[in-house]
């Protein structure tokens, strides 16, 4: 003689077998939450819409922007950063995110003159730029908690020599990996990036 479950236990057993649609919804919601968390706190993908960072970065390059490093240390000279438009940029009618190379750190004196970029009286040896800058700029001293950034395509870049500095609170993260196009897949060369061996005193 078979025994049947009490009605209350049968009801509990049925409750455990949730509707497949509910399970799908839960899975999708969890995936969205995880994706949002990763994009907000860890890393996100971005693409290059302009030529301002050529030849290092080409139009339509796809990059991974990691966001963890700057939670533990400040940006370093030579790193390529992505940042939200500053107030000065927005006043020029632009918005969204920008990508440039860090040239001046807080307290640095920066001068652009005669085709050279000088930081604290020393000329940067920049093998990665499209061509030498054809404009003069400075001298300026980078304010606290801010950074002076320039595009590698110096003469076709709206950057700090046009609109000023990037406050650290505007920085989204650091460009680390190019994942598209596949034939240029890999890490982004930051020239390690301005080690003392890459800086020489003006003659």
From TrEMBL:
Subcellular localization(s) per the UniProt record: Cell membrane; Membrane
Top EC class of this enzyme: hydrolase
Transmembrane segments: 21-42
Catalytic activities: Cleavage of hydrophobic, N-terminal signal or leader sequences from secreted and periplasmic proteins
Source species, domain of life: Bacteria
UniProt topology in membrane: Single-pass type II membrane protein
Enzyme nomenclature, EC number: 3.4.21.89
InterPro entries registered for this protein in UniProt: LexA/Signal_pep-like_sf (IPR036286), Pept_S26A_signal_pept_1 (IPR000223), Pept_S26A_signal_pept_1_CS (IPR019758), Pept_S26A_signal_pept_1_Lys-AS (IPR019757), Pept_S26A_signal_pept_1_Ser-AS (IPR019756), Peptidase_S26 (IPR019533)
CDD domains reported in the protein's UniProt record: S26_SPase_I
Domain Peptidase S26: 22-180
GO molecular function, one term: signal peptidase activity
Pfam families recorded: Peptidase_S26
Signal peptide: none
Alphabetically ordered keywords of this record: Hydrolase, Membrane, Protease, Transmembrane, Transmembrane helix
PANTHER family (UniProt xref): CHLOROPLAST PROCESSING PEPTIDASE, SIGNAL PEPTIDASE I
Family in the record: Belongs to the peptidase S26 family.
Protein name: Signal peptidase I
Organism annotation: Cyanobacterium stanieri LEGE 03274
Taxonomic lineage: Bacteria, Bacillati, Cyanobacteriota, Cyanophyceae, Oscillatoriophycideae
């Amino acid at each position: 003689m078979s025994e049947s479950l009490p009605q209350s236990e049968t009801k509990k057993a049925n409750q455990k077998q949730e509707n497949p649609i509910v399970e799908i919804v839960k899975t999708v919601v969890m995936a969205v939450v995880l994706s949002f968390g990763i994009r907000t706190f860890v890393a996100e993908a971005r693409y290059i819409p302009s030529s301002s960072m050529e030849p290092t970065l080409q139009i339509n390059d796809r990059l991974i922007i990691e966001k963890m490093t700057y939670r533990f240390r400040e940006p370093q000279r030579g790193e390529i950063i992505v940042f939200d438009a500053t107030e000065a940029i927005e006043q020029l009618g632009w918005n969204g995110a920008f990508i440039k190379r860090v040239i001046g750190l807080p307290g640095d004196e920066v001068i652009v003159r005669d085709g050279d970029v000088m930081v604290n009286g020393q000329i940067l040896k920049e093998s990665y730029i499209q061509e030498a800058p054809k404009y003069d700029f400075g001298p300026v001293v980078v304010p606290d908690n801010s950074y002076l950034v320039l595009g590698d395509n110096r003469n076709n870049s709206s950057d700090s020599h046009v609109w000023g500095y990037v406050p650290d609170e505007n920085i989204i993260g650091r460009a680390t990996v190019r994942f598209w196009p596949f034939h240029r897949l890999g890490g982004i060369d930051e020239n390690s990036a301005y080690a003392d061996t890459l800086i020489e005193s003006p003659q």
